[in-house]
Amino acid sequence: MDLSEFFGVLRAQWRIIAGCVILAVLSAVTVTALTTPVYTAQARVYLSTSGQEGGGQDAGTFVLTEDDLDTYVSILDTPAVLNPIREELDLPKGHPVNVTAEVTGATSILRITAQAPDPQEAAAVANETGPQLGKVAGEFSTLLAASGQKVVSTPIAPATPPSRPTSPDPVRNMGLALLVGLALGLGLALLRHALDTKVRTEADIKAWSDNPMLGGLPMVKTSSGQDLLSVETEPHSRYAEAIRRLRTNLMFVDVTTGKHSFVVTSAMPGEGKTTTAANLGLALADSGTRTLLVDADLRNPSVAKTMGLEGGVGLTTILLGETDPQDVIQRWGSTDLYVLPAGQIPPNPSELLGSKPMELLMARLLDDYDFVLIDSPPVVPVIDAVIVERLTGGLLMVVGVDRTKKKDLANALKQLHTVGANVSGFARNFVSSKQGSEYRYGYHRYEEAAAKGTRRARKKATARG
């Protein structure tokens, strides 16, 4: 995965990433709010020995060793120290007291740390630990008891009540939540991308083919078959502008082939190949090109239905030798677009399309028309598109965004590559408005022109009135 594909995944899966981040932050806020605050107070004391009263100058001095200090640190969490602290501070019996200590370097200085849910209690425990430790220290040192001396705790830096808790830390929790949420979101986004079976972007197509992207057609909501011909009914729409771009790019490809004919197909049914072929034929006719649209989908013909024409006779009728092409080819209004319907559905479509009469018919049609478009069946279910492609200059593959499965597209391209079929390029269909931003300029330009024409017509009507 290159950098551009990675950013493409981020754009496509941003909702998942944002959702994970928001969920993680909300969880951190909840945990922080429900967690009992813990305050930490520290005190430093100096431990030394002192002779008993009346011991005089000859009592001697006992020096605390490093082992003694380690012993005192280890008994801090025992009842011998904790119970006196509770009694001195009037804490309930069994009240939790959390106190630790560590020796500062090679000195007799202890750094005492106390934690409690109340700042005053934390400071009081830290300050009381030193004196209580000194009172019981002799019980844990035989030499100290034998010398008649006791341990004295001298405060160096008494503890003060902390102003803010050490736990929970809202800033740290929010930072960790952001990192965890972002990592989780990215992981889920990449996992979903890896497991996604549908074609979503150009990158999904380029993963299987280096052929060019000739166009991206936006999704059009329609209520009837006639509305599918947007180039005719809405010539200033985004879809019509996208079809004209596809026409222009296809004409550039035609320069390299010189056969002036293309098969329009798809990997599977339902990807919009027939609608694309019909609108592309209208766009070619609008440019002054005498265009013929042939319905070679002899298994599920739909060109006649899409264009509102009679489809009872057509291609199959000609191939059976029952009529002449000019008798069944229908002109679309007063345009330069002509339509050859499929005719009756035969029991042997592949044999008819691969027959000698079909080859002779194509040669005649290419002589009679400037450009020929052939709507063929999908590639994966049947081989018809491959048969027809041999008679034309190339193949335009229509890919339904969010509909075509990657495995179906891969299988279709593999079949075409196996027989040496020429895939001239791809037309992405059902492109969302977010992915089709490259057409907005043309759309607004044509929309503005249409609006100006409407305003002029209203002014003329008003002047006449």
Give an overview of the whole structure.
It is a multi-pass membrane protein. Its EC number is 2.7.10.2. It is found in: Cell inner membrane. It catalyses: L-tyrosyl-[protein] + ATP = O-phospho-L-tyrosyl-[protein] + ADP + H(+). Residues 270-384 form the AAA domain. This protein has 465 residues and is of the alpha/beta class. It has 3 domains: 12-29 and 168-195; 39-157, 2-Layer Sandwich (Alpha-Beta Plaits), CATH 3.30.70.1130; 202-456, 3-Layer(aba) Sandwich (Rossmann fold). Helices cover 47% and strands 17% of the residues. The strands form 2 sheets. An 8-stranded mixed β-sheet has the order 5-12-11-6-10-7-9-8, with helices on both faces. A 4-stranded antiparallel β-sheet has the order 2-3-1-4. Helix 18 (406-418) links the parallel strand 11 and strand 12 (423-431). Helix 4 packs across helix 5 (119-137) and helix 10 crosses helix 11. The longest helix has 26 residues, at 170-195. It is rod-shaped and about 130 Å long. 38% of the residues are buried.
